[in-house]
Amino acid sequence: xRQQYILKPGDLAAFRRSLQxxxxxxxxxxxxxREAEAFLQALDPGRAVTKEQVLAWKESLAQRYAVSTVNGxxxxxxxxxxxxxWQDCQTAPLRRQRELFRDQRxxxxxxxxxxxxxxxxxxxxxxxxxxxxxxxxxxxxxxxxPFITVEAVAQGEATVKCKGKTRTIFIPAVLCKxxxxxxxxxxIQTGPVFVTRTGKALNRSNVWREMKALCAxxxxxxxxxxxxxxxxxxxxxxxxxxxxxxxxxxxxGHSNINTTRxxxxxxxxxxxxxxxxxxxxx
Length: 282
Hints:
Low-confidence stretches: none
Structural class: mainly alpha
Number of strands: 2
Largest sheet: 2 strands, antiparallel
């Protein structure tokens, strides 16, 4: 008789606790729960989960989303199934050829980044301007901003703990000087530099919303303005100088160097220029 896979009350709560016990980031925990709930809501209440349903869900996602987005959703679902012991329901990710060129419509340029910082300053948003510079100059994730503390600025480096790993992030001297002046003026004597008016650390949604508000004034397409775009810009600028992808992977906190490769792929325009310089046509 075929085994019945039916979600029981409390299973999702237990799944959340399991993710937290494995020290997954809060953003990852919320994403996995959100994707699992989206799949389960598409089923009839109390109905058993089957591999056929999972494959149908996978197919419907493939028709609506990019490959990377679909695979992110499937990873969340597979994690739930692994926790529940439903290995028969797990499914393979969509296969795709590695991207050769980055999409210029979504990649923030150095000039656009500078215009965003200038727009923030023109609007009197010093905290936002410093936040943009901090992410772009260090390559940290927006979720790692709380590790940029008064103490870290004094030392010129921050110890970042994320996804079960610990790494050291150097803070450039010029940035340290600006951050010290800012914290002194704001009376921030200890803990995170970037906080709300009530003293709480800024979260991803706060930062995303403030960045988007700069787009019109800075004349930068909203499709390019995300906290992670600053991290990508850091990676490209660092690699252009150092050409050491292994070191860059360590700095970014990547376990898989293939993830780092995504950050440094060139544009089609750059590729065309290199082909022209080859001068292989008579």
